[in-house]
Design brief:
21 strands, binds ligand PMT, single chain, 407 residues, eight-stranded mixed beta sheet, 33% helix, elongated, Rossmann fold, alpha/beta, 23% strand, 2 domains, five-stranded parallel beta sheet
């Protein structure tokens, strides 16, 4: 998918903190996504990472001082500020936060920041006691009130040995947070429930029945919806994936747990998208202890799990209900059958067992089927793109069908 960051002009401001090394990776991520990045450094930042590193990677001179050194240094704070699509300060020290909150402009970075009208993202990073200091918190509140976007620091062991809040989030997280501001917010004020990943049905404490779902497709849908402004609840089976920025995740293991979680969220949901690969059967008996191997084989009696989607279809009121159909053959017939049988508004059929589509692939080939009988065949695309196309279609269906919802 073409990154939403492509072609954007980003200013990366680097302050003097131990986490400054992470800014190099952040710069690289922006560049890989096709952004043009200009770097501004405070004098203290150079004690941690040399400006040559940023110059070499960004391909532009670093803005460090208001005077001398560069022919247009005296106007760069205005020119760069006017051209910026977004400015991100990472790491942001207590010092820069205090200066920005009080309108101080005594160096290149603070002077430029006063001239910026584009979105400004501040990523605090410092010792926990410093971060929790009332003055710093008050300054952060002031910045938030002034329209700055504050990215909360992570918790953990800090370079100073303290354990607590103050870690600069990982570069990919900050990248996503910056990218988020460029998406249209056409799902704003909508609650979207997405299910993703596999479920596991225990045979005994060390064995289970499951499937190869990685969660990639469902997580892509949840991320896309959150990027577009939705309030997203992701009900996830066991996966190795991190919850995307802005998504509330409910972790479940079994089909029964997934059913409980989804039903609990359903009344408040506007749109429900069931991407999860739910086990259709569960062992009737779960052994309390590991089943010991013997000479002969064993038989396991399985019973049906609840069909969550079919139940949602029965109970649905205003919700727009979307299912996925994973098929190995007869995609259209099987998908349309599920669409009608489960009372869905739309179903995304995908063939599994193809390296470019379905389980664990980074791409998917989806055919969309609608309850009015129409269908659309999409080309192979990465799962992020497929997720956005799916959401595009949901928006246009909600807008054009006679439902209580209007986006
Ligand atoms: O996670 P990835 O590795 O990225 O793979 C993505 C995917 C292949 C899992 C995904 O694209 C997909 O096809 N998901 C649906 C998988 C599936 O269970 O399909 P199904 O045809 O068995 O079920 C049809 C629908 O009913 C699905 O929306 C499913 O969530 C739902 N269902 C099924 C059984 C059940 N007991 N309860 C359900 O809600």
């Amino acid at each position: 998918m073409k990154s939403i960051i492509e072609g954007k002009n980003i200013i990366l401001c680097v302050c003097g903190g131990i986490a400054a090394y992470k800014s190099v990776e952040l710069l690289r991520l922006f560049q890989k996504a096709g952004a043009d990045v200009n770097v501004v450094m405070t004098g203290n930042a150079e004690h941690f990472v040399g400006s040559m590193t940023f110059e070499a990677i960004s391909g532009h001179p670093v803005f460090k001082g208001m005077y001398g050194g560069h022919p247009d240094a005296d106007m760069r704070h205005i020119v760069w500020a006017e051209e910026a699509d977004a400015v991100v300060i990472a790491p942001a020290t207590a010092n820069i936060i205090g200066k920005l909150a009080n309108g101080i402009a005594d160096d290149a970075m603070t002077t430029l920041m006063l001239a910026v009208t584009a979105p400004k993202i501040v990523c605090p990073s410092m010792n926990t006691n410093m971060y929790e200091n009332r003055v710093v918190q008050r300054n952060l509140d002031t910045l938030e009130g002034d329209g700055f976007i504050i990215v909360d620091p992570g918790e953990g062991e800090l370079a100073c040995g303290a354990v607590g809040a103050g870690r600069l989030p990982e570069p990919d997280y900050i990248f996503d947070r910056v990218a988020n501001i460029f998406f249209s917010k056409d799902f704003k004020d909508r609650k979207v429930v997405v299910s993703a990943g596999p479920t596991r049905e225990a045979i005994d404490p060390v064995r289970f029945v499951s499937n190869p779902s990685s969660g990639k497709m469902g997580y892509a849908v949840a991320k896309a919806a959150a990027d577009r402004g939705a309030d997203v609840i992701l009900v996830s089976g066991p996966t190795a994936l991190k919850a995307p920025f802005g998504v509330s995740r409910i972790d479940v293991v079994t089909a029964g747990e997934m059913a409980d979680a989804v039903f609990e969220q359903m009344d408040h949901a506007d749109i429900i998208i069931k991407v999860a690969a739910v086990s259709d059967y569960t062992p009737s008996e779960k052994a309390d202890h590991k089943i010991k191997k013997g000479e002969s084989g064993i038989s396991i009696t399985m019973e049906r799990t609840v069909d969550i989607l079919a139940e949602l279809g029965k109970r649905k009121k205003h919700q727009f209900l979307v299912g996925f159909a994973a098929e190995t053959q007869n995609l259209k017939e099987n998908a349309v059958d599920k669409l009608n049988r489960k009372n869905l508004d739309m179903i995304a059929g995908n063939l599994v067992g193809d390296p470019l589509s379905g389980f664990n692939a980074d791409t998917n080939k989806i055919n969309l089927f609608y309850k009015d009988g129409s269908m659309e065949e999409l080309p192979v695309m990465d799962k992020d793109s497929a997720a956005h196309v799916l959401l595009d279609r949901i928006v246009s269906r909600i807008m054009t069908t006679n439902t209580e919802q209007k986006l």
